[in-house]
Amino acid sequence: MVTDSTDVLDATFHALSHPTRRAMLATLADGVERSVGELAAPFDVSLAASSKHLKVLEAAGLIERRVVGRTHSVRIDASPLAEVADWTEAFRACWEPTFARLDGVLEEMKRHRKARRDR
């Protein structure tokens, strides 16, 4: 488990960098605990490869594993994503003016379309 803020960000971004891991997290986002086999089923990868993906998610603190007998079940722990949200929030000032300008352009386009229709 990672503890330093920079380590949390690095591990979380690394875990989120692969589409299979993102899809696994998305599956777990409903809060329902699932077996490793259930999580692996939709993907065209071996159970061993799925386990490797889950180990990356677990190392990043994004999932918690529970073992009962031979069954390994996992559930999401989204708390590291809060750190990512905090980090990206610092960049909001960079993208909001761009979106505001885009909103203005789109509104102008709508007005021009309406004016043409009203002729």
Task: Describe the 3D structure.
The chain has 119 residues and is mainly alpha-helical. The chain has a domain at 5-81: Winged helix-like DNA-binding domain superfamily/Winged helix DNA-binding domain (Arc Repressor Mutant, subunit A, Orthogonal Bundle). Helices cover 66% and strands 12% of the residues. The protein has a three-stranded antiparallel beta sheet. The protein is elongated and about 75 Å long. It starts with a helix and ends with a helix. The model has no long low-confidence stretch (mean pLDDT 91).
Note the main attributes of this structure.
three-stranded antiparallel beta sheet, mainly alpha, Arc Repressor Mutant, subunit A, 66% helix, 119 residues, 6 helices
Largest sheet: 3 strands, antiparallel
Helix content: 55-70%
Beta content: 5-15%
> N- to C-terminal separation?
65 Å
How many helices in DSSP terms?
Answer: 6
SSE blueprint:
Elements: H1 5-16, H2 19-28, E1 34-35, H3 36-40, H4 47-59, E2 63-68, E3 71-76, H5 79-89, H6 92-118
In short:
With 119 residues, this protein is mainly alpha-helical. Helices cover 66% and strands 12% of the residues. It has a domain at 5-81: Winged helix-like DNA-binding domain superfamily/Winged helix DNA-binding domain (Arc Repressor Mutant, subunit A, Orthogonal Bundle).
